[in-house]
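Progress narrative, work stream C.
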Amino acid sequence: MSGPVRPPLTVAESDGTPTIRPCSEIVFDSGDFVVAQSGAKATITAHPGAGASLTDTYVGFGSAANLLTGSAKLTWDDTAASEQLLITGSNTSNTYGQLKLVNTANTANSAPDLLFYHDRGAGNAADGDYLGHFIFTGRNSVDDETAYYQFFARAKDVTDGDEDAEVYHQLMLAGTMRTYFSMQSVSNSGYISFNDDGQNVDFRVESSGNQNMLKIDGGNDRVGIGTGLPAKTLHVSDGSTTGITGGTEAAILITDDANPRIYFEDLSEGAGDRVMDIMADSEAITFNSLNDAATAYDSQNIMVVNRDNRVGIGVSPDSAVERLHIQGAGTGVLVRLESTDAGASAAPVLQLFRNSASPASSDRLGELWFMGKDAGGSDQTYCYLDAWLDDATAGNEGGSMYWYAKGGGTGRAICGIRGNIQTFQVNPDGGDVDFRAEGDTVSSLLHVDASQDNVGIGGAPDSDVQRLHIQALTSANPVVRIETTDGGATDGPDLEIYRNSDTPADGDDLAVIEFVGTSTDGAGTPTITRNINYARIAGEIIDATTGNEDARLIFRSITNGAAGQEYLRMGGQEVVFNEGSGDIDFRIESNGAVDMLKVDGGLNLIGISASPTSGGATLQVPDNTISSYANVNAVRSDSAGTMTMVNADCQGQTWVHDSGVVHAIDLPDAIKGMHFQIITTGGALTIDPNPSGGTSNEANGATGTYAASNTYQIFNVVSYVSNKWVISK
C-alpha cells in the first residue's frame, strides 16, 4: 500500500515496537497474511500456513506462496553419492500401491513414463554399463534385508549405431540369486535365454487344455511336450503315463494311449501325395500314405516292422513268417533285383546264406517254395527247391539240391543233385521202400524203414523208436563208439543232443537219457520183458532268454517200485539233492569215515563223522571235535601313538596292544553291528569315538575319550545302534 492517506496512517508492531507515524507506505516482503478490521483499525497477521519451516530431509509440496511442511514418510537424502528418495508407508487399502503415476494429457501417445538415465558424463559411456535396476526385497528369518527378486538392464555395446542391450530377471534360489531368464541383443540379432545359470529350474508353457503343453525339466535335462514328467531328452505325450524307466537317455519318446505316430508333409509334392506317417499299432511300426488332410489312408502298411523281428512289405507279416513277408496285388513283377554293372562278373546276385556258427552235415541251407491255393481255398506247397549242406569240411565242402513236387496229394522228392558224391539222383525218397545194408552175420546191419521213418543198426528198428534203434547181440564190446583223432587242445569228440525249437521256453525238456531194463519175480523169472525205466537223466531249460540262458540236469531213479524219484539236480547256480523232499539220505565218505557228512532225509537231521540220532540236534557231531579260534588280526608292539580304525577293522577281529606306550584308538563313525576286541598287555589305551573333534558319536553315553588304563585286559567294543558305541571289559 502506498500513497498519502488522510488522516495520516499510524503503523505499530503487535508487540508495541516501534510506532511509525505518519506512514505513507507499507511493504510485505513474502508470505501469506490475514487482514482483520475493527472500526478504522486494520490488523494484519501471518497466515498459519504461510512461511512454515521445512524439516531437514523432508520433501515439501505446493507453491512458494503456499508451502506444505512435508512428511517423515517422504524424505530425500542429499548426501553426495548417496542421494535417495525414500517413501515409507503401510498402504493396505489402496490397490494402486504407494506410488502412482498419472498422465492427464488427452493424447494417444501420452502415458505416465518412468525414465532411468545413467548419465556418466560425456565420453564416459562403456560396454556393460548398468542402465537401471528394480530390486524386490524383504526380511529373512533373521531379519536381514534380503533381495528376493530383481531385474536390471545393461548396455551391452555402446558403439554409436550398433548399440546393444541386455535385460536379466533374477530370483533367489536356495539362498543364491539365480538368472531365470534374460534378453540379449548381439550384433544385429538377439535371443531370449532361460535358466542362464544352469540350475534345477523348469520352464513350463500352459495351453487352454494342458498345463504342461511345453515343459523343460531343468533338473533332468529333458523336454516334454504334453507331459510334465518327460522320461527322455524329448518326450511327446497325450498326457498318458509312460512306463519307460530305462534305455538311452538321449532319445525321442512319444507316449500315446492310441497309436502314437509321426506325420511327414512334403508341400513340394502334388496334391494328394504330400502326407505320410509312421505309426505304432498292434506291437508294430507301420509306414503309411494318407490324403493331404491326413483323414484317410491312401496306402496302408507300405511296410510293417513287428516287435518280434518280422517285417512285412504291403502287408502285416503273417505269424508263420519268421522274418520278411512281401505281398502284392497284381500279376506284374513283385520283386526285382537290378544291377547297372557293365562288367563281365555275374550281377545281380541273390544269395541265401545260412550263417551258422557250427555248420555240420545235413544242415539245410535254404528253400524256395512255390505255393498256391487248392480248390478248397487252402494253402498248398506245390513245388519247392531244397538245398542241403553235405560236408562242411574246409577244402572238401559238398552240398545237395533236391526238387520236390506234389502228386496225388503227396509231395515227393523227384530228383536231386548230390555234389558231395557227384551224383544226380532220381526219386531219392523212393516211396514206401526200405533201405537195408547187411553185414556178414547181421542181416540188418543198417535198415532204413521208410514207413516208420526210422533207422535200425544191428536189426530192424522197432516202431516205437522215433529215429535210431541200435541193437547188439552181446555186451562184450561197446555198442557205440564216438572217436576223434584230433590232436589239438579243443574238446572232441562231441556228442550233442540238440532240441532245435523255434519257440524255446522256460521249462522245456531238452533231452532225456533213460536206462531201461526188465524185472523179475525175485526168483530170476522175468515178469516184465522191457520198458522198466530204472534211471533217467534229463536236461531242462530254466531260462531261455538270450544272454541269460540257464539250464539244469536232473537225475532220477526208481525207488521201491516208484519210478521218477528225483535224487539230484544241477543248474541255475545251484546243486540240489532230494528236490522232491523224499526219504533220501545224502552221504559223503572220507578216508576213515563212512558218514563223514550225513544228511538223513527221513529224520531231517545232519551228522558229521557219524549218522545223526533221532531226537537229537539238527546238527550232530558225536565226537565233539568242533573248535573255533579268535581272529587275531594284528599285534601292535610298536611305539606308534595312534591307531586309526576303519570299517573293515570293526568286523569281529581281535586286536592286541603289546607295547608299553600309551596308544590312542581312533574309532570310525559307528554303524550298527560293528564289533571287535582289544587286548592290552603292555600299556594303557585311550579310545576316542570322535577323533575329528565332533560330537556325533558316543562311547558309553559320552562323546569324550574313554580311558582303558589296565593291562592284560580284554575290551569289547560294540555298536548297538548307529553313532553309539559300548565299551566293556
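Work stream C, second folded protein:
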Amino acid sequence: MGASLCGNRAQSEGWPFGPSLYTRIVAGVQTDEIERWLKREFEDPAEEAISKATADLRLTSLDWHRLIQFVAAQDVRTPRSLEEHLQRGRETMPGVLQHSLEETVRRLEHARETGEAITPVKVANSEYIPLRNDAAGAG
C-alpha cells in the first residue's frame, strides 16, 4: 500500500483511527473542527432530503443538490481520499511555496525601492496556520 498516514501498517493497514479522520492538533489542542464543519455544511442540510429519499417522496432540485454535496462530503472522509489529497499536496506545495516566496521578495524589494509601507493582511482562518511574522522586530 505504500507510505501510510500513521506509519503503523499493522493498525488497519496503516490507517489511523479515532473519533474522526480529520481530528487534528491546532495550537497544541486537539480539534475536530473540520468534522464539525462537514456536519454543519453538508450532513445537517441533507437530513430532510435523505428522509424524503428513504420515504420515496418527491425530491426538489435543492434536495438533489444537498444529497450530492452530502455524498461528496462522505467521499472526502475516506482514508483513500485523504491520502490522495496529501499526495497532491506533496506534489504541488513546493511550487506554490516557491512562487509565494518569489512574489513576496519581489513585493518587499518594490516596497523598499518606493518607500511604500507594507501592511499585514488578515486572512480568514489564519489562526490554523502555525506561522509567525517576526519581520517587524527584525533589524
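Strands lie at 24-26, 29-31. No further action is required on this item.
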